[in-house]
Design goal:
Elements (H helix, E strand, L loop, with lengths): L1 E5 L2 E4 L4 E8 L7 E7 L5 E7 L6 E3 L7 E5 L5 E6 L8 E10 L4 E5 L3 E6 L1
Parallel strand pairs: 2-11
Antiparallel strand pairs: 1-3, 3-8, 4-5, 4-9, 5-6, 7-8, 9-10, 9-11
Length: 119
C-alpha cells in the first residue's frame, strides 16, 4: 500500500492550494480517510477526515470553514482543498487511510508534503 501526497508549495496568505493523495495497493472507497499536519516544533494534529461511507466529514475547528476533503469514486485518490490560507497553516501535510478488519486495524500514511503560507 502506498500513499503519495502532491500539490504542496508556497502560497501567500489568503490564497488557495489543493492537495491530492494518490493511493495504490488498496481501494479507499470504503475506508476512513483523512489529513493530518505537523507544524515546525509541534505535534502532528488532525485536520480533516471522511467517514468510511463517504457520507460524513470532520474538521479541526481551525480549518472548518476553509478546508474541504473528498475522495474519488474509484477509491484511488483523496483530496484536501484549502482556501483562505493563513501563516499558521504552514506545516507538512499527511494523508491517511485506516483499514479495519475483523482481526486488526491498519493505518496507512503518506510521506508528507510541505505547505508554506507567507504573510
Amino acid at each position: 500500500v502506498q500513499l503519495v501526497e502532491l500539490g504542496g508549495g508556497l502560497v501567500q496568505a489568503g490564497g488557495s492550494l489543493n492537495l491530492s493523495c494518490d493511493v495504490s495497493g488498496i481501494n479507499i472507497s470504503t475506508l476512513a480517510t483523512g489529513w493530518h499536519r505537523r507544524a515546525p516544533g509541534k505535534e502532528r494534529e488532525f485536520v480533516a477526515a471522511l467517514s468510511w461511507t463517504g457520507g460524513s466529514t470532520y474538521y479541526a475547528d481551525s480549518v472548518r470553514t476553509r478546508f474541504a476533503t473528498s475522495r474519488n469514486i474509484a477509491g484511488k485518490a483523496l483530496y484536501l482543498h484549502m482556501n483562505n490560507l493563513k501563516p499558521e497553516d504552514t506545516a507538512v501535510y499527511y494523508c491517511h487511510a485506516r483499514e479495519i478488519t475483523v482481526v486488526a486495524s491498519y493505518d496507512y500514511w503518506g510521506q508528507g508534503t510541505q505547505v508554506t503560507v507567507s504573510s
